[in-house]
Amino acid sequence: MQVVILPTADLACELVATIMERQIRRHPDSVLGLATGRTMEMLYDKLVLKHIESGLDFSKIRTYNLDEYIGIPPEHQGSYRSYMNNHLFSKVNIDISNTHLPLGNAPDIKDECRMYEWNIKANGGIDLQILGIGKTGHIGFNEPLSALKSRTRDKALTPETIRQNQGLFDSPEDMPRRAVTMGLGTILEARQVVLLATGNSKAEILAKAVEGPITSMISATALQLHESCVIVADEEAASKLQCRDYYKWVFENEPDWQEFRIG
Ligand code: F6R
Fold it and tell me: How far is the CA of 133 from the centre of ligand 1 (A)?
């Protein structure tokens, strides 16, 4: 695992957008794993800008999102399908038939989960997986006690997650209580993983995820098992990390990061 700390959320998002840009330019038919949530909004704005201003080409890109709420149709304004269409897919030249999210109102959710897993494998697996982190330490909707080997499945959301996300629905009661999520085992199979965390509210959980012991109580700790995982944080989210100075030294001095350093 590597940790990159940048002064602001804007710079943290810019770095993740640049990592994605590099992947897309080198491998225009890449399979991207995508996340939703407030943190990702600035990232998607930056990708849209790269498309408009420097022709970043999404025409052959295929995407798989981490999760979707159960019980609402894709066209519901609070669905993650709507989120992705609004923030990214409708603003770049992606072929919408190459974008995938679990169907939250599928007649048979277990079957939907099996098919989603099968579909990812049939497309060659995920090249670059983008993640956020919830206050419970979830990645995707892998809430506490998610098995470290779990696959795509339905999962009950914690009260904390429901509180965190209910603002996106007309009334708190409309917020779904369950979701389909890629499992930790699914996420760990991605060839490269980048987790983006910004803001004070993520500081405590990020420190546990990165520097604490691996535990199914905090699913982001599973990322410590991944061979190619980068955590990108702003100063606020990184403020409770013990080894901040070491991580900064590595970013400033290691040749691998040279092309990503500003100035
Ligand atoms: C949603 C997802 C979640 C979010 C997390 C953080 O697709 O993967 O794990 O990344 O809940 O959400 P925000 O960014 O709203 O704090």
Answer: 5
